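Appendix C reproduces, verbatim, an entry submitted by the partner laboratory led by Prof. M.T., so that reviewers can inspect both the input and the predicted structure.
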Amino acid sequence: MKRLAPLLALLLVAASARAEGPSTFRNPLKRSGADPWLFFHDGWYYLSATNARDVRVRKARRLADLKTAEDQVVWREDEPSRSRDLWAPEFHRLDAGSGPRWYIYFTAGDGREPAHRMYVAESAGDDPMGPYTFKARLLTDPRDEFYAIDGTVLPMPDGSLYFVWCGRPSPSGQGLYISRMTNPWTLEGPRLYLDVDGLGCDVVREGPVALRRGNEGPVFLVYSTCGADTPDYKLGMLSIAPDADPMKPESWRQHPEPIFRRDDEAGVYGPGHCSFFKSPDGREDWIAYHAKHGAAIGYADRSARAQKIDWADDGTPDLGAPIGLDVDIPAPSGEPAD
């Protein structure tokens, strides 16, 4: 009986470890995962990415389990003017007065450029999986004549909402614009062009996304620059004081250096077009992004990845360096047991 005790103890430890679930994971979370939008809500992780044909979401209790979760179609377009090349869907939980609803902001066109515009669909209730109904085409310029992609919602601390997107015209070919929102599907007033730094690239400022540390400090606007098919795709950043007016150019401050870029030694190229999410216990901030596994020009090898971020002493986000595919990453804090 004494000889069985150590063996029994080992079995109990192993069983306990299995119950706690995996403590690490490896990227990628989705092999075909450009423009990933990843968030945690009510006990579940949700992940969506560019699919071109429709909007699909996979969900899992643990981040590692997103790798094998099944994609479910939550939005498909039949209207010809917006049924082609659906890009970069984002999910935002907003309350327009009748309780929280989920809004999918997506880019689409009719297959003939520059036809891409921004659209939004609204959930029937408070479930990210829908069902959804079409809500509106966002008027990103007065005559609705200019290319618009990669739209996101920028919430300010006073509760006001702004819409930021990649549009034309722009000295860089396509750059960032911002407009006030009267509700989750309506823009108002003149749009403002944000003259942001390409950080060594002459073309493209796209994929904007808001980030803030809790309820204090400045609001950050992270964006992607350089061609998304190149190994030099990377992230830049603006910041704005919590009480400043986003519609005034002087309110914005440019971070002088890229905050996330290629790491050849780790085998990570073109990291960009990101989203941010909290760990299940709310103690950690994480980034989801796509990156390439090689330096060749092309769009086909972009996979969705995630890693924890930190904060510098001056209150700015510290994204560190992108982590290679052969590295075990500790799971987000507070993940549920099996």
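The helical segments are 4-20. Additional entries are available on request from the coordinating office.
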